[in-house]
From TrEMBL:
The keyword Cell cycle does not apply. Residues 348-349 are annotated as: Important for donor substrate binding. It comes from Amblyomma americanum (Lone star tick). The lineage of its organism: Eukaryota, Metazoa, Ecdysozoa, Arthropoda, Chelicerata. Residues 191-477 form the GT23 domain. This is Alpha-(1,6)-fucosyltransferase.
Amino acid sequence: MTAKALRAMGLGKLIACVLVMWLLVVLMISGPLFHSSEPDEQVLARLTRAVGELESLKQQNEELRSLLNSIREPSKKEEHSSARQQQHTVCEPSEEYEVRRRRVADGVQELWFYARAQLKKLLPNLKKEDHANLQRIIDDLAVHRRTIQLDLEEMRRADGYDSWRQTESRALTELVQSRLSKLQHPTDCSKAPKLVCSLNKGCGYGCQVHHATYCLITAYATQRTLILHSKGWRYSSAGWETVFQPVSNSCTQVGNQRAVPWSANVAGAPVVELPIIDNVQPRPAFLPLAVPAELASRLTRLHGQPALWWVSQVLGFLLRPQPSLQRYLDQAAHDMGFRGPVVGVHVRRTDKVGTEADFHGLEEYMEYVHDFFERLALKGGPPPTRRVYLATDDPKLLSEAKTKYPDYHFFGDSRIANTASLGQRYSSESLRGVLLDIHMLSRCDYLVCTFSSQVCRLAYEMMQLSYVDAADRFRSLDDIYYFGGQKPHNQVAIYNHTARSADEIDMRVGDTLGIAGNHWDGFSKGVNRRTGHSGLYPAFKAVEKVDVVPFPVQ
């Protein structure tokens, strides 16, 4: 059977599954409603709202059918194309196919978020018997959602394009890494334009690494060799090179040249000094979440979050470990018996809670860990060992986890949590601990954390280096992914929406939406840049707007 036939079968099965899921949700929402104690008017209003939301899914199904028909019934032009063109079509997916494949997966997840949130709102109003029935329905719906996700994964494996994905991923990685290396090793250092950055930002490890990332992105975009001043670094006074390989082996000093501050008129300056991202003025177009224009099309086809891939590549160059660090990381993984399948969980407490983030109990994290392993169990075979790598700055949490969840095997070290306390955060022991945690989290199959944490986002970024596309291998309990100090984060509406309450906003196809966050209940919050109105909108009716910016081509 051909790859094209497999794709057609996969899409056909997917359409059927989504339609069944759609009908189930309608029945599930409507059935228990009429046994609740709510007034009839409120019941009908809630039902109308739910059905109206689900009605929009019909349009997605029609688009899927169109895509399926285009695969089953190739045009005459395609039938008469040369053998070489046919081979090209089989080996490489179209951008439309890859984008829509990922969009369907996202849509299934958003449908689950919406259905679960709406059904759980009904639970407090139900009698005891109806409460139990509705909870069972929610649980059954979760199983249906997991099977659809498994089918989507199988469809991707069976479509015949995995070889291309691997090859394209390697090619893009080699391209970017070679360009970064060339930039950092100029033929004549004395004549090379330079960008000076100091690793002295007053924040924690993850924040400082992201500062260095911003510096290297700026160096790449301005075609300057980065000079990273790191002597006296809070985590290692001897500097960056005690832990990671130097950003350059041949061009590390500015010599007698005077550095001028960043401004709008530094294009011809031999040496420029860059401030922290919070203070840079004017703000350049190439700041994250911008993607180099020459890579944008290839990345849009390959990866679910092109900007995330780009940031991860810059990090990959910066965080090349010294041999001593690599030996430490390898030995630690060996000693703990680290292996998969495993979910990484990062729980940030101490200084973040109450200021930058809300408190989240361990149970909230473990809900998504449970879901991951329940999905694996559906595949059959011996039940998978439920492994979790737990990274935290709360020394008591590891023992709590082992007590509350005896069916899980937890990797982790409470001594690392002790060194992460505010009093010891900038010690060498603390640095080794955070390096190990980020390394192990990035090697996990799935990540559950809070994206308000720099360490969590750093682990997610580094995870991209281990997979062709790990954009969906996470669950954040609070924020969506972002880069501190980034440009406005925009989405684009792909379906019309009419506000049904004062909390929602109208939008038309093509509207640019400045997203503030995803509430993980089927709705995102943001501002419609056409109307200026802020509020909620259905998350599945908008997609990421890739910020394509011209970068100099070496």
